[in-house]
Design goal:
- The chain folds into two domains: 5-132, Alpha-Beta Plaits (2-Layer Sandwich); 133-174.
- The chain contains six helices and five strands; from the N terminus they run αβαβαβαββαα.
- The chain has helices spanning 5-21, 35-47, 57-65, 93-104, 123-130, 135-173; strands spanning 24-29, 50-53, 82-87, 109-115, 120-122.
- α1 crosses α3 and α4 crosses α5 (123-130).
- It starts with a helix and ends with a helix.
Length: 174
């Protein structure tokens, strides 16, 4: 059954809003996946704060042309059956979710991604993004690095205090 013009306009407005607010939009070919597989992917992506959409490429092109950031972006890669994974909070989450799913479902293949500034990323760049640590892991690493000198100084001072106290205690008992 064909989609009505008003429904298409609603979809274009929705996709345009997604592009305007998303930090990263990854698109991948899902040719060969079952509906059950896509449902499993959607459940896994929801837990990670990622939204999965299946929209006709032509409607995505129209939505991009209406967005100032994406209107000059090359859309040549938007061919075939594609799904779009987006995140409003994390730059690498869509790539990570799809990469994790692709480990058990070979039919899912990265095609590319659109960054927040309208740049087009190829499949290799998306794969590289998927291998990066998550945002929370990166924050933890930075905090750990910042606290390392503080911990070193505290350990050194507490070690000297223990040695001093041991020396005072030895003099007192002698």
């Amino acid at each position: 059954m064909a989609i009505t013009k008003s429904k298409k306009n609603e979809l274009v407005a929705e996709v345009s809003e997604v592009f305007a607010t998303s930090k990263l939009t990854v698109f991948a070919s899902y040719n060969g996946l079952t509906v059950a597989d896509i449902q499993v992917l959607r459940r896994a992506s929801t837990d990670a704060g990622v939204t999965i959409k299946v929209v006709k490429n032509r409607l995505v092109r129209v939505a991009m042309s209406q967005n100032d950031t994406y209107k000059n972006t090359d859309t040549a890669l938007l061919t075939g059956q594609l799904l779009y994974a987006t995140s409003y909070t994390d730059e690498v989450a869509p790539a990570k979710v799809l990469a994790e799913f692709a480990k058990t479902h070979e039919a899912l293949k990265f095609i590319g991604a659109f960054g927040m500034e309208g740049e087009l990323l190829d499949a290799a760049a998306v794969t590289a993004l998927a291998s990066l640590p998550s945002k929370n892991e990166l924050i933890g690493q930075v905090v750990s690095m910042l606290l390392s000198p503080v911990n070193d100084v505290t350990n050194a001072l507490s070690g000297n205090l223990h040695a001093l106290l041991d020396g005072v205690e030895a003099k007192a008992t002698a």
